[in-house]
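User: Here's a chain of 281 residues. Predict its fold as tokens.
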Amino acid sequence: MTVTSRVSLLIMAIICSGCFPWQAPERLKKYTNTKDALADKENARYVSLYNAGLKEMPADDLTKLPNLVKLSLRKNNLGSVPGAIGNLSNLAWLDIGEAQLGSVPPEIGKLSKLTTLYLDDNQMSGIPSDIGRLSSLKYLNLDRNKLSSLPKEIGKLSGLKWLHLNGNQLPALPAEIGDLSSLERLYVSNNSLSDLPAELGKLAKLTDLSMTGNQFSNMPLAVLNLPNLNRLSLDNNKLTCMPPDINKLQNLQWLQLGGNSFSEEEKNRIRQALPNCLVIF
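Assistant: Prediction complete.
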């Protein structure tokens, strides 16, 4: 099989495994305005106000929907979210991406049934420590904000499986990242990272790790302690070599190293150390 064919098969595998939460969402009747939802408030479970020209969240109307489990406020010009968001106690799925948010209120931590949270493509420089109270959360997307740090309480999200942090301004990750015992996929591309905490090596279930576009001059040694890692992306860093014991990553299937400065000798050594892995320079 050619390298091109292998790449195509791996891309298809990733597409099939999904870049979004791992189960098909329940099909719910979608209400696209609060007036219709309020007219059927006992049955209204999904409200989508996507790109509705909103300047603020219609909190008074939404809190009158006792069975609301899914809410989209994406692509509005909200700027902020009121504390009343915490009163939507049955929410399991919440999308407030592309909403010009500078922050989210601590009351978001009251959403104890929330499993999926999109806060991507906003202007947030931080997230409240109350994020750690989201005990049911499995998917968290914070891509393309202005985050320069994460609260240590993020480590309390013991059920979290997917964490998206691409395109922020993070110079480091907290040691508590190692407490995310259920984490399977971690995306931290295009930040300012030059190392990772040793505690990251505790993530025994991690299969995907993307660190493209950072400041790594050496691959963090914590990565070598990830026994189930399948895919690792380190494109566009400052690497000139990989660890001598890179062969410890026996389950690695796909390794991306383009945009670094490896000698031909080092490239050959890496390929020989990982004979069952597709290595892309």
